[in-house]
Design a protein that fits this description.
The complex is a heterodimer of chains A (245) and B (181). Chain A is built from 2 helices and 11 strands. Chain A has helices at residues 13-16, 202-205, and strands at residues 82-90, 101-106, 131-135, 141-147, 152-154, 160-162, 165-170, 179-184, 211-212, 223-226, 229-230. The termini of chain A are far apart. Chain B is mainly β and 181 residues long. Chain B has one domain: Aromatic compound dioxygenase (Protocatechuate 3,4-Dioxygenase, subunit A, Sandwich). Helices cover 8% and strands 30% of the residues of chain B. Chain B contains 3 helices and 11 strands. In chain B, strand 5 and strand 6 form a beta hairpin. Chain B is globular and about 40 Å long. The relative contact order of chain B is 0.21. Classes of the chains: A mainly beta (245), B mainly beta (181). Chains A and B meet through strand 2, strand 8 and strand 11 of A and helix 1, strand 5 and strand 7 of B.
Chain lengths: 245, 181
């Protein structure tokens, strides 16, 4: 029998640094790369209201800089199961975040990234790059067409495999609402031994798992997965409240 | 607010460049424009090794202390730079103007910074201040909130021939001060 990876430790209560239970600790030794990259000194709490106003907006992005369909970036269609990934981007008070940037990147159906750093012996797909970018609509909604990524091995620990996932990078209305996360697929047994998703407190882990949604499916063409995203905090400080010097 | 429904953060992973690549986003203005300067530095880990799979994002006011408001803005306020193989990043930007803070205090010129990358389960938050703004820095309420006075120096960008130099040290003796979100 091949030795399986051990089940990672749940993050400690102190490490989670509530209030949100959605925040992973910086230091999570089961994910080896945190050991030399996590700050060891306590984080400094800024006095209230010192955050700089607003955040970036990307309304100037032209259609050719946006790509919501990852299956049409090359001459032919990529191999793999075509899927639709859609949802709504909201802030912590439930307000939709409109016209804001979402970027995604992922492995191909064989579990290989189109990146020179990924040298594991699975085939590249000449018809799949695996990156997409769009702006949410006037109700905060987004929709990508892509293929389901494969699981892949990595070097973190013996026989380590990442569960299939899509990387998401999103912007809120304030700069400190920036969120980078990973979307997983329902029922993936690899999550139990995955040190990256296991760094999240168990009650919050579920929020990174998409739902199979037959309402998003296009009949005879693609399955649909719903992934709603909630960034921390509510609307940004209005500009009027923080004057220029 | 409990924030009970927030989506958890996860690392951007080793292939961050696939998702974050955005040529030109490291230039907030053209290098020939008035006030343009190079803001460069290196991201280093706890062993002093360069971090080649990170991205540095900045958000800052223009030279007059203004952020982009609603409507078309000439000043983007936002920059993004992936680190290179030596962990280096380089922005073309300006030194921002001072900002008002509550209670009639002025903040010293500064730039908000977030760092993403492999090994970072969520981004790090810090600020860049300017070593040649001694008087303003001495009055700055965010610098004053750092209990270890010596550590405040880790947030001071040092003048160079073309602008400023600022290293981001994730861990260790010279560890940069990071802020809670």
């Amino acid at each position: 029998m091949i030795p399986g990876p051990k089940r990672p430790e749940a993050p400690t209560e102190e490490a989670v640094q509530d209030p949100s239970v959605a925040r992973p600790p910086y230091l999570y030794p089961d994910y080896r790369a945190t050991r030399l990259r996590a700050p060891r000194r306590p984080l400094v709490v800024l006095p209230e209201r010192l955050l700089d106003p607003g955040g970036p907006v990307f309304g100037e992005l032209t259609p050719h800089q946006l790509e919501a369909d990852l299956t049409r970036q090359h001459k032919g269609e990529p191999l793999g199961q075509r899927i639709i990934v859609a949802g709504t981007l909201r802030d912590g008070s439930g307000r939709p975040i409109r016209g804001q940037l979402i970027e995604i990147w992922q492995a191909n159906a064989a579990g290989r990234y189109a990146h020179q750093g990924d040298q594991h012996p699975a085939p590249l797909d000449p018809n799949f790059t695996g990156t997409g970018r769009l702006l949410t609509d006037s109700e905060g909604r987004y929709r990508f067409v892509t293929i389901r990524p494969g699981a892949y091995p990595w070097q973190n620990n013996p026989n380590a495999w990442r569960p299939a996932h899509i990387h998401f990078s999103v912007f809120g209305t304030a700069f400190d609402q920036r969120l980078v996360t990973q979307m997983y697929f329902p029922g993936d047994p690899l999550m139990a031994t995955d040190p990256i998703s296991s760094a999240i407190e168990p009650r919050a882990r579920r929020r990174m798992v998409s739902d199979l949604d037959l309402g998003l499916t296009v009949e005879q063409w693609a399955l649909g997965y719903r992934f709603d995203i909630v960034v921390e905090g509510s609307a940004a400080t209005p500009f009027e409240e923080v004057g220029r010097a | 607010m409990s924030g009970a429904g927030n989506t958890p953060s996860q690392t951007a992973g080793p292939y961050i460049a696939m998702g974050f690549s955005w040529p030109g986003r490291e230039r907030l203005l053209d290098p020939g424009e008035p006030g343009a300067l190079e803001l460069e530095g290196q991201v280093l880990d706890g062993a002093g090794q360069p971090v080649p799979d990170a991205a540095v994002e900045i958000w800052q006011a223009d030279a007059g202390g203004a952020f982009p408001g609603p409507g078309p803005a000439r000043w983007p306020g936002f920059g993004r730079c992936l680190t290179d193989e030596e962990g280096h990043f380089r922005f073309t930007t300006v030194k921002p103007g001072r900002l008002a803070a509550p209670g009639g205090v002025l903040q010293a010129p500064h730039i908000e910074v977030q760092v993403f990358g492999r090994g970072l389960l969520r981004q790090l938050f810090t600020r860049i201040y300017f070593a040649d703004e001694e008087e303003a820095n001495a009055q700055d309420p965010a610098l004053a909130a750092i209990p270890d006075r010596d550590a405040r120096a880790t947030l001071l960008a040092q003048p160079t021939a073309t602008g400023y130099h600022f290293d981001i040290v994730l861990q260790g003796e010279r560890e940069t001060v990071f802020f809670a979100r």
